[in-house]
Specification:
The structure holds three protein chains of three kinds. By secondary structure, chain A is mainly α. Chain A is built from four helices and no strands. The longest helix of chain A is centred in the middle third of the chain and has 30 residues. Chain B folds into two domains: 80 residues, Helix Hairpins (Orthogonal Bundle); 120 residues, Cupredoxins -  blue copper proteins (Immunoglobulin-like, Sandwich). Chain B has three helices and ten strands; from the N terminus they run H-H-E-E-E-E-E-E-E-E-E-E-H. Chain B starts with a helix and ends in a 5-residue tail after the last helix. Chain C is mainly α. Classes of the chains: A mainly alpha, B alpha+beta, C mainly alpha. At the B-C interface, helix 1, helix 2, strand 7 and strand 9 of B face helix 3, helix 7, helix 9, helix 10 and helix 11 of C.
Chain lengths: 122, 216, 543
Amino acid sequence: MSGRPGIAFLVWAALLGLLAAVLWAVFEEEDLLSVLMPAFAVALTAALALGGWRAARRAAVRAFAPQADPDTSWPAVLAGISLVLVLLGLEVGTFLIFIGAGLFVAGAGGLMREWRAERRTR
Amino acid sequence: MTDTRHDYDALASLYLPIAAAVVLLVLLLVVAFAWRYRARPAHEGRRPSRTHRAPRTEALYVLVLAAVAALLLWRTFTVEARTDRDASGAGVQVSVTAAKWHWRFEYPRAGIVQRGTDEHPPTLVVPANRTVDFTLRSLDVIHAFWIPQRRFKRDATPGFTSSFSLVFPDTGFRRDGGECSEFCGLRHTWMKFHVRVLTPDAFARWMRARQSGAAA
Amino acid sequence: MTAVDVPRSSTIRPHRGLVGTLASTDHKALGAGLFVTAFAFFLAAGVLALLMRFELARPHLQLMTLHGYDELFTLHGSTMFYLFATPIAMAAGVYLVPLQIGAARLRWARLGLAAWWMVIGGGLCMWLGFLTEQGAADVGWYAYVPLSDMPNSPSIGTDYWIIGVILAAGAAIALAACVLATIVTERAPGMTMLRLPVFSWTMVVSCLMVLTAFPALIVAMALLLAQRQWGGVYTGSAGAFDYQHLFWFFGHPVVYVVFFPFLGAVAEAIATFSGRRWFGYKPFVVSLLLFAALSMSVWGHHMFTTSSVENRYFSLTSTALLVPAGIEYFDALATMWRGRIRLATPMLFALGFLVLFVIGGVTGIFVGSPPLDYHVTDSYFIVAHFHYTLFGGSVMGLFTAIYLWWPKVTGTLLSERLGRWHFWLTMIGMNLTFFPMFFLGWDGMPRRVADYPAGTSWSTLNALSSAGSALLAVSVLVFLWNVRRSWRRRVPAGPDPWGAQTLEWATESPPPRENFVGALPPVRSYAPLQDLREQRELEAQPA
């Protein structure tokens, strides 16, 4: 697991930055979104590069051990469905937002339990 | 004076042959290679080539590609500078208003208004071979003013007035010569206008007639 | 719901059944589930297209109202992008990336699982509009303001549609994060980034674009929802242009998100069926990064006619795209050169991709020139252009992927004979459907119209196009027949029926729960099995 994915991300952020710089400096684009959106893209990619660097190093240190993932995760399914209900509730009615939020909490709780169980077996 | 259609045709006559050549080249190479290098039982022992890089060839190829891009861009920028030049202010002025789902043409200097109804779209009347300066606006949603014969369209965004100039070389009447090309709701399909190009003398006569109250 | 303790060297394949699959954290089940969901939406969106083509086959309205037609093209485009193409691109990554990189799992699999359910829920929300009184969203898949604002589009179907888009976009971001995290941390020993298989590299750039571009869509949609509810968000012409900037900052990269993974599949197929490793790997990787970076910088070319963007900049970046695209074609053809080519079905679709996508590509360069775009944008010319890239590119590449990896996923083989029928019907049907549209647009037929004047060449061209769409429908039926037949016959495929090159072919078909049992082949390049094959050939030669 050697190798540095961060470099690929940094190269990409640099390319994005270069292209955005041409837009701002050479073509003098001042539209706020045309500045913000590319800047966000560059910043996020640079952050991924940094995060990726550290994560790859940590993963290399960790032994290549089988993970004790549970085979199914109904809390995850619940979390996904409850998000659907919350958003749908914006149109259908507030009651659905509450139902969705409640289910989301239940799902999140289940996920917490799964994570803690995994940490214990690691 | 920019003839947008002439400029379009000139630019397209650069782009299209290159495009067609590239497509034909790819088709030819794909078919030729699939045939020439097909696996044949008689040649079971023949090993496929193991070469997997050719950096100098690829670098040269990249330069060729960049040169093609540069050529296309140079011609495009040249033409666009003409097409997008601001209205001169000297020619006939037409003010175009788009609203769901009709067009209205006003000739502010002459006080003429061409309106459309559900049954009869309005006719844009213009003189031949004279620059016509347009302003374009919308009253509700985004529409787009498209005259295919002139190879030109522009969006009409509410709250924003755009301006452009067109020249109409050939006289004649084109039914539905203009269309709305930005989806604007239910009757977008039928939001069209006719285009009538008159000789400058006939145009002057038409304007006088309209000013004295004749029908559009 | 207890944890399954999988012994390291076992080949236990837990029997899940359908219910277990719906909640499985095994990336293979998740990938398969996403694939089936997305393909079902592909069929649904295809039916909408068939209805539109039936209506347009002759002038005047035959089948539907103007309003019905508006709903059809809105839901066709939206379903294709949000519910089919993006999820299926992510599905390919979810299933294949861990296998290609020698990993046992997908990272953050539960996040991916939740995302799958968001795609299902989001899709249902979008289509729920058809059941409402005023019908589904009818504002076009890009839903420009002010058209999509409440006064112009009061139907609740549009609100449901917005919610569906937000859910689908959020799901895509989650899935992209999972795949990217897996590539960062789960690569097998020896697999540096520059030994990632070609397909996995295409997933890297796709996921990067999802993470950096899709948030703009969520912002655009959330603000649109707020605008419809309370107003005051998108005001005046600045508001209209802001919406377009937000939307297209997402809207251009998305077409590359749904393209690159299938370009990767085509590359793997061409290499495999030419008996050679992919040519020009390093230039290819650089060109992928450049291609993706450019694709993030061209969004204004959708706004050339608005007079509100720097046309020259966006023309520059758009035209520059021909450089990385050219490199990819060079590498594809160079891989075939002096190879030993077998025209199995995956290879047929890969070659079809090469020939069809280039038509989309060169017409894309054409409309990258503002004066040319002024005529053909928003006409049937542009509809033809993007269908050549999306169908001729992504869909052909998708079928390449399906025929290539079907044996690995299911452990069985698809029929080559039916595959050839599928391929040729697709090639003829696709060109018959979309090539006439170039002429229609050039001649002045705008897009998003349910009707056109009778008595012109448009009638013939539209009739040809509609006939082509019927052929495409038949081609898809042939494919479904092939699937059904293969499912029933179950001809065993074995681990590597094609003589392929990457790690996923070094395990059983279908792979066991933890993907690999025992030691992996050594990873010394981006084509480890090809390395072994070439080494064996060298050793077999007489001294």
